[in-house]
Amino acid sequence: MISGRKLVLQRMQQVLRRSSLLLGTWGPVNAEFVNPCSSICSSRFPFFALGTSLHHERAHHSRSLQSIFDFVDLSEYFITGSDYRRAPKFQNYIGPVRIDRTPDGRGRGLYVSQDVEAGDILIINNAFAASYNDIHNSQMHERIAAILKDSPRALRQFYSLAADTQQEKLAVPEVELFDDSIPYHGDDSSTPGLSESKIRKIIQVNSFSGKLTLPGHQEAGRINGLWLLPSFINHSCCPTASRLLVGETMLFMAAQNMKANDELTICYTDCMAPLRKREEVLGITCCGFRCRCERCEFEQSIQKEVEDISERYQALYDKAVEEVTAVATRRDKGPYPACRELAVLFVKLRTKLDSMKELTKLQKHWILGGYSCAFLGNWLTTGYMSDFGPPCRHLDSTAIGLVEAMKVTVPGMQRTLSFSVLLATAVKESAERLRLVELALNECVKLYGKQRPDVLRKLAQDSVQYVPFL
Ligand SMILES: [Zn+2]
């Protein structure tokens, strides 16, 4: 008997072959975009290889360094399928970022100290401590307690993290405290001693759990860890950065062009979800706070207008997940009542938005991005059954509009990348197809950094193994 996972991989191989042809013809055109600085940077810093200390050059060349392929050479790791067991080792790197107090009372945050481009690496941070399949964080707790006993600097770093969501009164540490290449001469007389309960609280508030993946996006377990400097990065439902886990190392990329003093933010939850769903996860399930980002404030202001759609969406979503999983893994032929009803809701939502003339294009994108799964459920079930052939083609214009909304709402997201590659294999118009491939490669840069063109093509091709719904 063939397992469900094997089946989905077989099915994805068919799509992959088509997307491979598609992406393969386009590479040279994109080479210039992918790394406009490559010729300059490679000749200026040919000696920088993985593991080279970056600190001394950082002050002068940090911007250029981020563009060098050799600086963080992830090519082989990506080309061979992003297997966490073969992840390269990194040195910590702090790019042009600083810690500062937020102007609106949220506490502390990370800000870029100069203009940066989408795909620039902002931070490379090894786990302070990590453990595997450690549901209650007990192994991680033991490891952290051992580290803190031996290192005054680690103790100071650790205690600078928040122990609850009330951060207003906490001191703002210098970013250099976290730069291990700078000698530490801290005055530790005021550093508090070890407290079991405080260690537990800090781990609870700041730790992160991520999937371990084998080639083909197969989940192989979970990693729990604490990453110190990234703990200062705040949540936003329209984030500016993307996060990539490579082994026990976290890399943060600018997911859009940013101006000096812009805040570096990430999503703590699935930000391609409607307001009520995000509120539920952020407030109850995960983090215990209410997001007041610009997108949340706007969506709150029009929630009454879409309340009926929102409630029905919430009621149907879990069932739709089951339906999409069934067709993606078993080629189950349905019917798909939840996906069908969600598709009707999506049309109703678009009609509603069209009637609200006062909304800006960005505001409409935020709403559509949040309800993207209402469209995707039906599109994907139809698509997986026909290998993205004719039956789903009549939805081209809506689908292409949705990709635009998704990339604007949450730049640098795996779901948008996978959707745009699948869509590129399905659309009729070659000009549209080319635009979608370009868009997919741009999303790749935001997600994975300024990698080589052949690496980006491989990442885009492989993205179809990820079902852009789950
Ligand atoms: Zn928000």
From TrEMBL:
Listed Pfam families: SET
Entries under InterPro entries matching the protein: Gramillin-biosynth_MTr, SET_dom, SET_dom_sf
SUPFAM superfamilies, A to Z: SET domain (SSF82199)
Coiled-coil intervals, chain numbering: none
Domain SET as annotated: residue spans: 95-269
Cross-referenced PANTHER family: TPR DOMAIN PROTEIN (AFU_ORTHOLOGUE AFUA_5G12710) (PTHR47643:SF2)
Name of the protein: SET domain-containing protein
Biological source species: Ceratopteris richardii (Triangle waterfern)
